[in-house]
Amino acid sequence: MFYKPQDGHGLPHNPFNAIVTPRPIGWISTRGADGRDNLAPYSFFNAVAYVPPQVMFASTGAKEDRGDTKDSVANIRETGVFCVNIVEYAMCDAMNQSSGPWDKETDEFVKAGLTRAECETIACARVAAAPANLECKLTQIVQLPGEANFTVFGEVTGVHMRDDCLKDGRFDVLSFNPLSRMGYRDYTVVREAFSLKRPDE
User: Fold this and answer.
1) What is the mean pLDDT of each run of 10 residues along the chain (201 residues)?
2) Is residue 12 part of a domain?
3) Interacting residues of 181 by C-beta distance below 8 A, sequence separation 6+
4) What positions does the domain Flavin reductase like occupy (predicted)?
5) For residues 192 and 178, what is the distance between their CA atoms, to the nearest angstrom?
């Protein structure tokens, strides 16, 4: 099968995000200028550079009470900071609860039953029990083609790692099993890993 996105795929559901899988989930916490905290998951998320460490996430929708975007991007525009909270399998229900189309007054930490903690380098809340948190300062917001498509880039200014996830000096993802996004309503879990040496090693 071949299709041009501009012509449509003719399938019951869009296959695009089922093709680009699995994708890590950036559980983005932000705080607006009014002091309200927000927490929402984004599966268009990844690390993009080592030095300085940088990450990105993309928001692809809008809410009526936020104009051309969603709460996360709106808050980051106001404050210039955000935190990425890593999602473990044990938190999948809380992550899903925080993904609802709630109004900007809703506190997703409360709605999902999560304990928050303050970040160290930025004025923002983080998911206290997450395996890791990346505190970030905004570097740029890039508007992409299409309605309400924005990519947010941030430099990591602080890193939290849960002590039980450190094994022999390494951050061990199998100790908490990261949750990843697939297509449609599907997710997957990282439960095994293997290593490969580069050809020049």
Assistant:
1) 97 95 97 97 98 98 87 97 98 97 93 98 98 98 96 98 97 98 96 96 90
2) no
3) 17, 21, 22, 23, 24, 25, 43, 187
4) 18-173
5) 11
Q: Domain containing 105: what range? A: 24-189
Decide if 195 is inside a domain: no
Please state, in angstroms and as integers, the Cα–Cα distance from residue 122 to each residue in 74, 125, 136, following that order.
17, 9, 7
Interior angle at CA 17, CA 50 and CA 176, nearest 5 = 55
| CATH number of the domain to which 101 belongs | 2.30.110.10
Neighbours of 72 (CB within 10 A): 23
Q: Is the peptide bond before 12 cis (omega within 30 degrees of 0)?
A: no
Is the Cβ–Cβ distance between 24 and 46 less than 8 Å?
yes
β-bridge mates for residue 37, sequence order: 31
Report pTM. 0.95
Look up residue 74 and give its two tokens: 């709106």
Tally of domains in the chain: 1
The SS3 call for residue 6 is helix
What residue has token string 């975007």?
Answer: 69
How many angstroms separate the CA atoms of 95 and 183, rounded? 17
> Is residue 198 in some structural domain?
no
Residues facing residue 31 across a β-bridge: 37
In one letter, which amino acid is 75? N
Contact between 10 and 2 under an 8 Å Cβ cutoff? The reply is no
Residue 60 lies in a domain: yes
